[in-house]
Structures are given as structure tokens and as C-alpha cells.
Description:
The chain is an alpha+beta fold. It has helices spanning 2-38, 43-81, 96-151, 158-184, 199-209, 211-217, 234-251, 300-303, 313-323, and strands spanning 195-198, 220-223, 229-232, 256-262, 268-269, 275-280, 327-332, 338-343. The protein has three domains: 2-80; 115-191, Helix Hairpins, CATH 1.10.287; 195-354, Histidine kinase-like ATPase, C-terminal domain (Heat Shock Protein 90), CATH 3.30.565.10. Helix 3 (96-151) packs antiparallel against helix 4. The longest helix has 56 residues, at 96-151.
Amino acid sequence: xxxxxxxxxxxxxxxxxxxxxxxxxxxxxxxxxxxxxxxxxxxxxxxxxxxxxxxxxxxxxxxxxxxxxxxxxxxxxxxxxxxxxxxxxxxxxxxxxxxxxxxxxxxxxxxxxxxxxxxxxxxxxxxxxxxxxxxxxxxxxxxxxxxxxxxxxxxxxxxxxxxxxxxxxxxxxxxxxxxxxxxxxxxxxxxxxxxxxxxxxxxxxxxxxxxxxxxxxxxxxxxxxxxxxxxxxxxxxxxxxxxxxxxxxxxxxxxxxxxxxxxxxxxxxxxxxxxxxxxxxxxxxxxxxxxxxxxxxxxxxxxxxxxxxxxxxxxxxxxxxxxxxxxxxxxxxxxxxxxxxxxxxxxxxxxxxx
Length: 354
């Protein structure tokens, strides 16, 4: 292996220095030609003496130059063989070009480390989320098993038990869907189809989807009529709306949930609106937690109080709304409920209507 490297190094050295060797030979020939043209006595012989001396010096300089070239190449081979190690050092740069190449290599290595760190962080976040998700999905599964056991009990109402079973199955479906959207988030741009959509219709379908949980929650519910159209991706926007409804149901123990539209001045409106409000009378969010509610994995005070929050729901909503070029704002206070405002700016795209 070492002999092969030596041959490769010598071959490349001759190739890289070939122009210099050729230039020296041409210069010598020019001097000899000039001396011959003028016809000085013994000038050619005298010139040959000088050529021998120059050749000797050139050979010595070439040996030194090749030795430095060889050592540098061997050092680079050694660096290449240790590229998987966390730290390695390049040979000392002798020229500006070598210095620039060295800086480029160091910059590329730093970029690589940053990328690896980012990927490691995403992997840890993904592992933490799925660990929490597994514990979270166990709850409706255990509840479903309990419901099925109760189904065999003649003293319980069969209709009520079946309803509870459907509720738990719906929760399992929602958790699975949430994990799927979380896994697709990094490649969301390739899965989007922008078109002009009826946002009010998307909201109504989301409410209809959660009808089973609404009826079993004991909460009063109000969906006001409004008109809102926006250029968006229907599937991703629907998921964000559903996630907000899910949070409203999860954290509202009593009271009501309201959905209505407001205009650009913030006034409640039943006509054309640019913003939609999903408001509840739930437990609310601590003021100190509000600046961080859109961070991945942040559960806040209420999320840590035995409610098994993953801290992913609002993070997903924020990411989706940002990539759809919409707004999402949250206003809340402890024990006074939460108000989520979805904003849809007018966008001039040439798209088809849905």
C-alpha cells in the first residue's frame, strides 16, 4: 500500500512540475542558441559548464522540493484515513492557495458537524415524541378494553358503552394521524397543493369530525356563520384546525366552545372575514408559558399536571400555518379560557377554486 502511494505521488509530482522542467530546458536552449549565433570562442563550452552547475543545483533543489511534496502528500493521506475521527489536523499551509483550501476544509467540517448535531437533535426529539406518543395512546386502548369488558355486563346500557368505545377509537385514530403528520412535516412542501378554498367549509367539516367527542363532553358549542376564502392547502389546514379543536376539548372541563369570524378590525362579523376565532372557557395557559407554546416539546405548567401532553400539537399548528403563509395567535389566561385566532391574508395567486 505504501509503495503504491509512493508511485502515485512521484507520478503526480512529475506531472505538476512538468511545465517548470520544460521552461528550464527552453531557457537553456535559448542561451546556447544565442552563444552559438555570436560565435564567441569556446562560448558554447563555457556555457555547458554553467549548464552543468545549474543542473546540479536544480537536481538538489528538486530533491528537496520532492521531499517536501512527498511528506505533505503522505500527511494528507494520513488525514484522509482518519476522516471519521472527531478531530484531525491538516499539514501546515505554505502558500495562500493552501491556506484557502485549508479554510474551506475546516468550514466544510464545521458545517458537517452542525448538520450532524441538528440531525441528532431531530432524532432525539422524534424518539422523545414517539415515546410519549406510545404512553399516550395506551390510555384510550386501556379505556377501550375496559369498555368492552363493561359491554358484557348486563347492568350497563349497551348503547352508552358502544358510544364510549367509539370515542376511544376516535382518540386512537387522532393520535395515529398526529404522529403521521409529525413524521411528514420535514417534507411538507412536496405534499402541498395550493388552491383557493372555502375556509368556513373546512372548519365545519372539522367540527363534524369531532361531533362524537362534542356530544360526550357535556360542553355547549356554538359555530357562527361566516364567509372566508383563502389560498391554502386544504388537507394541512384541516389538520391544524382539528388539532386546535382537540386542544379545546381536552382542556375545557366545563363551559363552552365558540367558533366565529372577525374582520380586519377585530370586530365579530357574520359576513366576509379575514380571521377565524376558536375560543373556549377551559383551564387556560399561564402567562409565563405563552411565549413558548409553539416550541417543539414544550408542555408548559398545565401540560405537566398529569395530562400527558406531548408539546407537539401547537408546534405542528404553528409550523403548518407558517408554511401556508397564514397566521396563528393565541391569547389566554389561567382559568379564563383560551382564544386561538387564525389569520388568512389576501394572496394574489392564479389558482383553481375548490
